[in-house]
Amino acid sequence: MEKTIVQFILDNAFLFLPLGITGIVVTIILLFLPKQEATPEYEDVKSDFITIFKIRLNSYVLVYLFIWITMVIIGALSNFFIPTLIGGIIAAVPLILLVILEQRTNNSKVS
Amino acid sequence: MGFIEINLNFGENTQLLAPFIAMIAIVWVFLVYYSYKKYGTKKTIMYFLPIIIATLLIESAGVAGGRYYYSGYIIYLSVVGGAVPLIIILAWSVNLFLFMHMGKYFISKVYRKQNFLQIVSISVTAGVFGVCLDLLEDPIAHYNNWWIWETSLSGIKFFNVPILNFIGWFILIFFMSVATLLIERSRFSENRKVLLSISSLAITGSVIFIFHALIVRLFEFVGLS
């Protein structure tokens, strides 16, 4: 009978427990060792943009779009239309949100 | 059974596996190179290595537990008895890096102050974006036998994919994003951040384990799993 990952880990606690304890001990040691550096309070995300054919695109949105297009094409080639259509619409939500947000931010900067 | 296994029957029992693997390989190479150029070696290790280790253990446990399996891939890795394709582990590192940075970009437009609330908001956004893409990817993967869920699994399914899978995606991306962002924004040196990102997997993994166990119990209690 199949087990959930949780059941599998519990059944093999002798394997995972030493790993976990070692990790926790090392983390505590690393956290409490001296020497620290300062970090800036704000992060600039503007440099995530790349320009292709004079169109300014966010690199991550571009990668997500590439994955989305590839998966939709594979879904269509598999003759698996309805799930691809429904999944494609849901998976397009992050893209739409990011594009709308980018446009609104640009418009508010102009006005 | 060794740590690395080679399968000579590429694509057996699957459809369109080659374009899927090619897509992951292209995206992984691009993002690792992009991260290396933009953030440097240490941050790139911090972004990619912990999730590779975490998902290697989780996926291997999932396969060893008999809930699903992978067929037709070339290189498999096995750490706790279940063979997981290398490309799937690399795909997970793409997922975390991509969704965490999309979450950063999205939240930075509406809330710029860098505090714990922003970290949680970014991580929630990353998890939701991840689930959105998985709702497209997982049914296609199951249909083409890229990974095969046991048909005996009960509970609510989305085109034959158990709903707990999507919850698992959210939990994993959410907590890994929280851990990565907390370490990234800490005041430790870069070397220590890299070490912390790996050692703290024990803590992040325990939290993921407890949350996942609670949700599985809850689903069983209400009869959804």
How many discrete structural domains of chain B? 1
Report the mean per-residue pLDDT of chain B as an integer.
Answer: 92
Strand order of the largest sheet of chain B: 1-3-4
Radius of gyration of chain B using CA atoms only: 18 Å
In terms of quaternary structure, the protein is heterodimer
Helix run count of chain B: 7
Low-confidence stretches of chain B: none
Outline of chain A? flat
Largest pleated sheet of chain B: 3 strands, antiparallel
| End-to-end Cα distance of chain B | 32 Å
The share of residues in helices of chain B is: 55-70%
Helix content of chain A: 55-70%
Mind describing the biggest β-sheet of chain A? 2 strands, antiparallel
Q: Could you give the count of β-strands of chain B?
A: 7
Q: Structural class, judged by helices and strands of chain A?
A: mainly alpha
First CA to last CA of chain A: what distance?
Answer: 63 Å
Question: Could you walk me through the main structural features you see in this protein, from its secondary elements to its overall organization?
Answer:
The complex is a heterodimer of chains A (111) and B (225). Chain A has 111 residues and is mainly alpha-helical. Chain A has 2 domains: 1-35; 46-110. Chain A has helices at residues 5-11, 13-32, 59-77, 81-110; strands spanning 49-52, 55-58. Chain A has a two-stranded antiparallel sheet. In chain A, strand 1 and strand 2 form a beta hairpin. In chain A, helix 3 runs antiparallel to helix 4. In chain B, the strands form 3 sheets. A 3-stranded antiparallel beta sheet of chain B has the order 1-3-4. A two-stranded antiparallel ribbon of chain B has the order 2-5. Chain B has a two-stranded antiparallel sheet with strand order 6-7. Chain B starts with a strand and ends with a helix. By secondary structure, chain B is mainly alpha-helical. In chain B, a hairpin with a 2-residue loop joins strand 6 (157-158) and strand 7. Chain B is built from 7 helices and 7 strands. Chain B has one domain (4-221). Helix content of chain B is 68%, strand content 8%. The model of chain B has no long low-confidence stretch (mean pLDDT 92). Classes of the chains: A mainly alpha (111), B mainly alpha (225). At the A-B interface, helix 1, helix 2, helix 3 and helix 4 of A face helix 1, helix 2, helix 3, helix 4 and helix 6 of B.
